[in-house]
Amino acid sequence: MKIKIILLVFFVLITFFKSSYSNDTTLENKINKNLRCLICQGQSIYDSQSDFAESMKLVVRQKIEAGMGEEDIYSFFKLQYGEWILYDPQFNSKNFALWLLPILIFLAGGIIIIVKFGVSKKR
Amino acid sequence: MILNYIGNFALFFCLILSSIIFFTSILVLNNKNSFFKRNLNELLFFKFFFTLLSFFSLVILFINSEFSNETVLNNSHISKPLFYKISGTWGNHEGSLLLWLLILTFCAFFYFLKSKNRPSDERLLTIIFQELIIMGFLFFLLKASNPFNIIFPVPDEGMGLNPILQDPLLAIHPPILYLGYVSTSIVFSSSLAALMKGNINNLWAKDIKSWVYISWTFLTLGILLGSIWAYYELGWGGFWFWDPVENISLMPWLSLTALVHCILVLEKRSILHSWTVILSIITFTLGICGTFLVRSGILNSIHTFANDPERGLYILFFLFFLIFLSILIFFIYEDKFETNNKNLNFYSKDFSIILNNWFVMYFLSVILIGTIYPIFLEVLSNEKISVGPPFFNKLIIPFLIPFLIFMSIGPNLKWIKNNKLSNKLNLIFLFILSIVIAIFVFKFYSNVTLNITILLAVSFYLFFITIKDFAKRNYKNYSQMISHFGFSLLVLSILLNSIFSNEVTSNMRVGDEIKFFDKSIKLQRLENTKEANFLKLIAHFKIEDKDKIELLLKPEIRIYDKPETITSEAAIKTDIFRDRFLVVNLVKENDYLNVRYQEKPFMIWIWISAILISLGGIINILKKNEK
After folding, report:
1. Are residues B529 and B594 in the same domain?
2. In this predicted structure, what is the pLDDT of residue B224?
């Protein structure tokens, strides 16, 4: 039983680290969806129609045409406006708790279940 | 003018009645005084009646556009259509809190009426907790957000309601959502009461179940309505943005979903007593938390908090009071549980429900942490970060895979005993079939990641298995089958929708034509019209495919004057295979329009599946009433 749970956790973690959620038709849309429109209430520049978002979209397009990669464009915007502009929080010293806390809660839940209920496989 | 006073006094009267009920219930509980007991029903009804009176006063103030009332002044104006004058009543902080209170008093009355088979001291205790909540809200309403503040001299015209809120769906969205939130208060109060009386057992589970189903169904419907509204109103065709306000409605829904399952285990097997109580407490606190946070504007920016310290502080105080009270009661009376932690079997329904709770609580914690972490970080280190869709996708999608597998197999297992799965061959065949389909999609669509492919396979698996269950004609669990089928359809249509969506964006003048695969999109002409409270610019588009089949779409731009706002109304053509979504907006100081055309497959199935999910809940409620 315990092996099964361990396998399960392992399986989950593998897919977690491999995951990169991208199914947008173009790179441009993907980047646009990850950039926050700074003058709107919680919208990405992809979803926003404000002047600010429109001009940001232009900048993104120019950067892509200039041959910059996805990560380079993010760091460019991060340098200009701060981390606030990125919707995908990076894994760093400030944010590690954000990423790890849910996983720890998941593991703790699993331990509680095993301790509380001695699960048996006997038929 | 007079209605301001009526509404206000009705609220005061409510507060008096509420405290009378509170204290008499305590008296009755101690002395078993039968005089008050008989009258409690009437008192509860009168309290509901006076809240209703107060609520209708506000509605009529809105209908008559009486700007002597501050709430009406800030949220309405004369030229607004009647329908939106009425719905404007709950389209603002004060009015929506009054609606919340109205439902709260109704729930208390309705609970007392319908709970005659419960022990009388447990009922009284439930009412005591309920009154505590009602009084808390009444104080807040009267002190910090009174809907009946009077303005003098009376202004001629109001400020108007935000145009994007002037929408039929959004008019009924808050009442439905509130019905869901507020009815969890009964589950909360009743679980605390039953806990104090040592009544948490399978009989209690059986009785409280209908309230759990009611809350869950309304909450599901409420979230669905909000999501449909966001889809056609908020611009570019998304229906879920992982926005804090959306997350906050999803959290109580998740813990209710866990409760819906866990209460079954309590009923059938008499285990998980304390967990059920904890879930009831969590659900209600998250619900209050949600409404308050959204209403006070803490979430969008922490600084709004400082703007109105009175409201913010009251919220925090009340919330902490409720949490502290319930934790205290929980630990004092915890020993009243029948502690019989029976061993569980791996291949049993009970254990799969525990697995369900495990995963659902994980999803809940991801959303909770993702929503409040930025607030804490800003307070503690003054650094601002954004947590958006990529975060939630990364943490939720991998865990959804085992979750869906358990969900496929769990309902086919039996209670208590380990049992062999009947028709193992069938299950394996369906599994292979799902994998083949997913690999097929993976091969032909280069932008699909491995992760999504696996998710696609398991959601196909759940889909096939729920269909197979329908064929078995097991009418006992009809509601569960419909809800699970709806859920599999939901995951599947969301996935297929995100994989196969296509779009084109362009700037266009009249006469311009753009290509979209084998289709041509032409902007034929523009048209100006004037409506009651806005100007309308209609763009006429013709979409033609290679077989010369034409489709006319007419997206609009609306220019409202009070308050001055420009909104885009998308033109959506829906059929069972796809939505064609066209939206335009103005580009400042330019003579062209910004146009976005999208083809979004299976869009309607997302809504249908959410309706199916809640249909399962409705069937369950009706089934219980029949008995």
Report:
1. yes
2. 95
